[in-house]
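(2Fe-2S) ferredoxin
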Amino acid sequence: MSYYQYHVFFCINQREGGAKCCNNFCAQELRDYAKQRIKSLKLDGKKKIRINNAGCLDRCNEGPVIVIYPEETWYTYIDQEDIDEIIDEHLLKGNIVERLKI
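Tokens:
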């Protein structure tokens, strides 16, 4: 069994010179939002959900991106509503959010 039920990695990479990257789309702020929301739901910790920073996940053209393990499900997102949908549907109910899947 995994240490966490779900392990969520947010790419927060920032490239120099204006090159396309996830952090150009507020990735750090939305990762912080997701982490706070998981904590407020008391879903953080061992056997629960872990929200982590990640460096470049090499999918810059599809960004911003997150990947959720253990299923290795990749998502893109735009705003807090998308993050809420991923949390509510995937992390709480186990349903893939097809419209955000990449």
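Residues 1 and 14 are 34 Å apart (CA to CA).
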